[in-house]
Amino acid sequence: MIEIDDLIPHMRRVQGAERDMRDLSLTWQMIEASAAISCPEDVQSILPTLTQTRQRFDDLQRRLVTQLAADTLAELQDELIAKAQCAIDILVRNLYERTADVGFLATDDVLREFCQASPDQQAAQREAVRRRLGEYRAKYSVYDDVIVLGVGGDLLVRLDEGTTQSRSEDPSVRAALRARGYVEQYGKTDLAAGDAALLYAHRIEDAQGCPLGVLVLRFRFVDEMGRIFASVADARNQLAIVLLDADHRVVASNDEGHVPLGVRLPSVDDGSASIVSFAGREYLAVACATHGYHGYMGPGWRGYAMVSLLTAFRARRTGDVDHAVSIDNEELVAVQSEASAINRNLRRVVWNGRLMARAEGNDQARLKAVLSQVNRAGTRTRARVEQAVGDLHRTSLARTMHQASELARLAVDVMDRNLYERANDCRWWALAPTLQAVLSAESEAGGAARLTAVLEHINSLYTVYARLVAFDAQGIVRAASGEDPARPLVGSRVEVSLLSAVQALADTQRYAVTPFACSGLSFGEPAYVFLAAVRAPVTQRISGGIAIVFNTVPELTAMLREVMGNRKGIAAFVDGDGRVIASSDASLVAGMSLPFADSDGVVAHDGMHYAVVGAAASGYREFRASDGYRNEVRAVVAMQLGRLERRRDTHTVEETASAVRQVDRTRSIELAVVRVGAGIYALPADQVIEAVAPAAILRAPNAAPAVLGLIEARSQGRPRILQLLSARRLLGVKTAERAGDGVAIVVQTHGGQQALSLWVDDVVSVVEVDRNAVQPPPLAACTAGRFVMGLVDLPGSKTGTLVQILDAAGLLDLCRVPASPDTAVRAAVATVA
């Protein structure tokens, strides 16, 4: 279990935030103390709020620092887990195919006949068998050697001709002879000149199941891990990514100079970061067990990623972030809510203080000085808190974008590796002796039945195919697996484009793939069809072809859903025109266009924000990279962030107003500025007493529609029950309130003889404007109608903010029935907390 405090000394950004906020906390303590000393009576009404705000800021400071540290750690942990998990899972998916390969090749008739032959016959056939194994390796290029041994361990034939070895004592050979399936073994072996190797062995049997020999495939493990490590490497190249065996020893390393093979690393729990010591340094490390693939769990290894604490938390550029993008992060929402509450309290303190200073005359220099300090400290506090909250927001968004990026890369990698196998399969099966013999013969008794049996057998083992089809040189279908009696395919002709594609294949290494489209071979469903030429055994002339119909949409959909797991979001493969090939979302069917832009960034879709990242398929080994096959496909992953919300910058107007210079007071008017919805409104400051946050609102019976109820507030120096009007209802504001919106301002007219309270979204500032700048309200320009008595541009506003000046007397007209204590008592029956 990691203690966050232990990591903060390594996090410069968090240390900076902690230092700045500690300084601000000291500033608030000084302001509070100096106010209490210099003008205790003047600040009596605002001092409790100042104290409460300072205490809330101290709590928020600790919460922010802790959350910044936790999110910084979580971002790095996500990266480490993604690297370690991808490394082991990609390898296990690959090795799963190897277990199928060795089992299928062990049933090859050519190998079976070779093992049954006499020594003299084997000597005569050895070069032909070696060529056949060479064809196999050329297609399945993940192997560096293919070996056939007798039941006594004698080497009958192998591709590696650089050795004089005649027999093997490797335990995998004996184990394969006893086993009914494949044998997987990693370690030093005489089949690799004493070096470590990953071997797949399977016994070769006769028709009665008796062992004839052993087939061994030697996997290009070092080469494959180099490719995997390159695909998951971090841009800074500071992560150590390794594979560990059951004894925690390194079997593969992305940097052997840093973490050598065979070294033992400290054990850590799967899926969570731990601090470990290695070679005299402290590291942050994670380990990940494989998720497995179709029940296959690999050789029992784990992915392991670690990074030195000296470099782990170096600043990373995350780019600018739109803070209007909502993110489903409960802690971030809570911190933002608390920060907004503190800012509202500060605005209310300054707002009320300015009203107080104005009401008590020009001799309130000390009070004004305190308010000026509060305002400046509030601006600094708000800016620093917003910076910290922005860091949290950026980190949270960057985590999601990074996760989407890793998933998109994984998706195209899995797809490319899968299609690599499909290209290999069609070319290898085209070399099947039965296909060559039957399709090259003009007529052969029972040939169609033999072809069908072969295709059905292969299809039963490889269920990723919808069907396999064999056709002759004229394009006539001679056999097909999964034949539908209602719609027979045998005897029909394949499309001319398919026959032409096969006839254009120059050698046994070439293959063709149809575009993703519907065809007669694919049961009318869009699919990729892989094609290879079948050649006559002697002349090598093309005598037909084999078409394997990849069950494209279901298989690619399954890949995407497996990649996404239980994460909220959408993953899709799209073609070069942006049309969907397959999607994890059932509503996005093949052929549709994505309902959002597939470029990297944040998009709005179906009422939600999504982090979108795409990755282009670049191929695997020679597939799509150097074999001539071109097909533009991208994986697009959209990770759900949060619901679309109405967000506004509530501080721009206030900050502008706060910076305005005073004008000549003999020709000026002071305005108490408030916000309602997106609009900015004001009341003459001499008609406003204070802003309050009432503890309760009492429902008033038979009240006008604009009346929310009754509250208790001070007017003329004593507590009074006042009617509370909704500014939103009066002004026709329809947009929904944000969480935290709402403050009551106490308004009076006629020398304080009449008073009411007005519920607004927030207070902004108290400003002075030139009376001559106030314009009469054109009816069309006002949202408040009969309650507006003038318009004025907010002085100093860079955006030309228009302020609508409300008429307090007009608002009071709505309160014809004065609120009396009796009314309050009757209304108290239904108290709204």
Account of the 3D structure:
The structure is a single chain. The chain has 833 residues and is of the alpha+beta class. Helices cover 36% and strands 25% of the residues. It is built from 17 helices and 32 strands. The strands form 7 sheets. A 5-stranded antiparallel sheet has the order 2-1-5-4-3. Helix 2 packs antiparallel against helix 9, helix 4 runs antiparallel to helix 5 and helix 9 packs antiparallel against helix 13. The longest helix has 65 residues, at 365-429.
Give a quick precis of the structure:
By secondary structure, the chain is an alpha+beta fold. 36% of the residues lie in helices and 25% in strands.
Helix content class: 25-40%
Span between N and C termini? Answer: 42 Å
Number of strands: 32
The number of helices is 17
What radius of gyration results from the CA coordinates? Answer: 38 Å
| Poorly predicted sequence stretches spanning 5 or more consecutive residues | 647-661, 817-833
Approximate shape: elongated
Strand content: 25-35%
Q: Give the strand order, joined by hyphens, for the main sheet.
A: 2-1-5-4-3
* Largest sheet properties: 5 strands, antiparallel
Mean pLDDT: 86
**Which structural class matches the secondary elements?**
alpha+beta
What topology does this entry show?
Blueprint: H1 4-7, H2 12-38, H3 47-105, H4 109-116, H5 119-139, E1 143-150, E2 155-158, H6 171-178, E3 183-188, E4 196-205, E5 211-219, H7 221-232, E6 240-244, E7 250-253, E8 274-278, E9 281-289, E10 302-308, H8 330-359, H9 365-429, H10 433-440, H11 447-461, E11 465-472, E12 477-480, H12 496-503, E13 512-513, E14 529-535, E15 542-550, H13 552-564, E16 569-575, E17 580-583, E18 601-605, E19 608-616, E20 633-643, H14 652-658, E21 668-676, E22 679-684, E23 688-692, E24 697-698, E25 707-715, E26 718-726, H15 727-731, E27 743-749, E28 754-760, E29 762-770, E30 788-793, E31 802-806, H16 808-812, H17 821-827, E32 831-832
Parallel strand pairs: 22-31, 26-28
Antiparallel strand pairs: 1-2, 1-5, 3-4, 4-5, 6-7, 6-10, 8-9, 9-10, 11-12, 11-15, 13-14, 14-15, 16-17, 16-20, 18-19, 19-20, 21-22, 21-29, 23-27, 24-32, 25-26, 27-28, 30-31
